[in-house]
Amino acid sequence: MDIFNAVIQTLDSTLRLSVPLLLACLAGLYSERSGIFDIGLEGKMLVGAFAGAAAASVFHSAFIGLGMAILISIAFAMIHGFASITHRGNQIVSGVAINFIAAGSTVILGQAWFHQGGRTPALSEGERFSSITLPGANAVKDVPVIGQLYSELLSGHSLIAYIAFAMVPITWWVLYRTRFGLRLRAVGENPAAVDTAGISVTWLRYRALLCTGVLTGLAGAYLSMTQNGGFVKDMTAGKGYIALAALIFAKWKPVNAMFACLLFGFLDALAIRLQGTPLPIIGKVPVQFMQALPYILTVVLLAGFIGKAIPPRAGGVPYVKER
Amino acid sequence: MSTPYAKLPAWADYGLIPLINLLVAFLVAGFVVLLVGENPLRAAAILVEGAFGRGQGIAFTLYYATTFIFTGLSVAVAVHCGLFNIGTEGQAYIAGLGVALVCLTFDATLPWWLTFPLAILAAAAFGAFWALIPAYLQAKRGSHIVITTIMFNFIAASIMVYLLVGVLKPAGSMAPQTRIFLEGAQLPKLNWIIELFGARVRSAPLNISFLLALVMAFLTWVLIWRTRLGYEIRTYGFSPKAARYAGISETRIIVITMMISGALGGMMALNPTMGDQHNVAIDFVAGAGFVGIAVALMGRSHPLGVVLAAILFGMLYQGGAELAFEMPAISRDMIVIIQGLVILFAGALEHMFRPSIQALFASFSPRSVGMAPAKGKGA
């Protein structure tokens, strides 16, 4: 039973660790599918995390916090849009800029407003998203295996976690079953064709970035208001880039994105779990190797050794209407 | 790549527009200072005073500038080839391993003027190697160099952390860093140059790698504008199709350019390790690779521009430290914001003011912008 418990615990932390990745990954999916590269996921998550925790602690409401997280994250997505859609700037450069502005401003403003070295005050019970116990979870707790799976693994996550996993089928549906989704995919492949059909490329791409902003805001709020009880300096710690790696790993598809994020979350959970304990046969695996594994896997995939990741064709190229 | 923007006179293109972009970036930064509740003008005064007011400040400014010249050149060379090397950070970090190996091996036996060239070679080789793999994957496998270099930054960080908490750490020490280099791997300081001008320098880490940086800037200029290879690099950067048509090997040019870029980035590792701390510590690059992006954008990828922009950023780093001391509300993170704003306005939004400046020029002298909207040179 010991092993079973350990497995359940590892899977549980896998779920928890993959939630922010999944939200950021889906956020990147909307933007990149519309032909806008977005390496600013990291920064948008960070400002979302800060705005969420700051607003929640000032207004004593988790939902106001969440709203602010989404709003500020959208604002940063719009800066990215303004630079890369309206002014046809380099999308990579704009993303880098956003990451820097986010990293600096969250600390400076946090220090100026709360005087806790760039942190926000610790959030109390009503100010953060507490875990939701699914109906009947307590009742089936003692049923072996299935009951435990339900009550330990599936139940007891926060609202945002459930939203994150619900976003997977929703994103799939939006992308493949709605007019917006069809156009979104088209504009990422061939914006000129979309333009010829009389649809505004600009407006379509802005709407895609709007979705990106909402989702990175959720991801940030999850970090500072669920996983952690407040904002800490540089708390995204590269998650935005792992999400980007997951997006490539998933070949820009929503369901694949979920599995990629779960895989990367699992690696992370395993790294934490295995810290210092030797494995049979392999021996002790360095933590750093486990941490680097998502990146190594992505490079191997990009190199075309396991399948081929083909990005949206118009990705990274600003659309010029007049020729 | 052709842009739909008409041509401006060169001085406006290379002088006026970057200046306006920089001014706007500082205006927005000033607004952030205001938001924090401090006086932006006073903050600016403290910053400039801290960077250039005393000999000590100047020496520190040039010390930081040394680092940024290397990383700025690294990004700039790649930009000429149309490649965005976001991996300078990782290349410099891995180059630290090369420097450490050379210094730990020879510091007891060789004098610094023999260790230094060896360390330069090692840093360049390790940096170039770390750029080689992404370059090869871009050229042969078509994987996007931006993504692979980002991934390689993280892989480099993992490797270095692993080595610095393991093999490279002296026994019995807790800090994740190598032992202190002996005299044979400590670079001589250059503070006497500043003292020649009558200023006093108590102790500043400005060292001989500053001269190396200037030499590299010059060599980069020679490479890009005075050699056949440089011509090929620029051709490829301007139009990969034309380069292919002209018989330039795509793989060769991408791989060579990225290796040069990686080597330049790698040499950055010399400055903080052999020049200042006399060891290789965890995270010694400290974001300098990313500053290089801002420096290259600011300097328009021209070596002279890179040197000037690097001094500007050196000033921000040194003055920023003083500022954090005088105004506790404004920590070093303010520099990160300014850096981001410079990248945003000088890089991503570089064309924002262009149409209005063009209109202005056209109203004064239509000939200066060319009557017909010709295909202007892109960024």
Number of domains of chain B: 1
Number of discrete domains of chain A = 1
Major beta sheet summary of chain B = none
CATH architecture of chain A: Orthogonal Bundle
Q: Based on helices, strands and strand pairing, what is the structural class of chain B?
A: mainly alpha
Order of neighbouring strands in the sheet with most strands of chain A = 1-2
What structural class results from the helix and strand content of chain A? mainly alpha
- Mean pLDDT level of chain A: 86
Structure in a nutshell:
Chain A has 323 residues and is mainly alpha-helical.
Question: How would you describe this protein?
Answer:
The complex is a heterodimer of chains A (323) and B (379). Chain A is mostly helical and 323 residues long. Helix content of chain A is 68%, strand content 1%. Chain A has 12 helices and 2 strands; from the N terminus they run ααααβαβααααααα. Chain A has a two-stranded antiparallel sheet. In chain A, helix 2 (41-59) runs parallel beside helix 4 (91-114) and helix 3 runs antiparallel to helix 4 (91-114). The radius of gyration of chain A is 20 Å and the shape is globular. Chain B is mainly α and 379 residues long. Chain B has a single domain (46-326), classed as ABC transporter involved in vitamin B12 uptake, BtuC (Orthogonal Bundle), CATH 1.10.3470. Chain B has helices spanning 10-36, 40-52, 55-80, 88-106, 112-141, 145-165, 191-196, 209-226, 228-238, 240-245, 250-267, 270-277, 288-298, 303-326, 333-348, 354-364. In chain B, helix 3 packs across helix 13, helix 4 runs antiparallel to helix 5 (112-141) and helix 9 crosses helix 11. The radius of gyration of chain B is 22 Å and the shape is globular. Chain B starts with 9 loop residues before the first helix and ends in a 15-residue tail after the last helix. At the A-B interface, helix 3, helix 4, helix 10 and helix 12 of A face helix 1, helix 5, helix 6, helix 13 and helix 15 of B.
